[in-house]
Amino acid sequence: MKKILLINGPNLQLLGVREPEIYGHTTLKEIVAGLRCAAENAGAVLEDFQSNHEGAIVDRIAAALTDGTDGIMINPAAYTHTSVAIRDALAAVKLPAVEVHLSNITSREDFRSRSLTAPVCRGVIAGFGVQGYHLALTALLVLTAADEN
Over the stretch 40-58, which tens digit does the pLDDT of each residue have? Predict the structure, then answer.
């Protein structure tokens, strides 16, 4: 059974109330529940982790190297644009990773248009709201199946 790790960065625990005109009304808990169900239907297991702390995210990525994780879905949130440490952790573990964002980060403020983490991910899905997480899950399941062969 494939194990997919979902990592959500700072302030995503506030989804549903934080700037709903940008991020929508769905809570993180609702997103995770839907993804968990979709993963189970695909014969996989989803583990979720959310932190507002860069070091905790780096530690969780490093732990994925030895805990049976097959792929990482990550919304680094604000750390997308600032964290060399998260970028380096993703590069170090060499697991397939897909970066996901609810909004289209390239159509927002200039400082959001550059992702430090994207170059070490297999792909980026942005601008599709909650559906982007489901697209990222599908992509990871395909990638991890292909990596087996």
Answer: 999 999 999 999 999 999 9
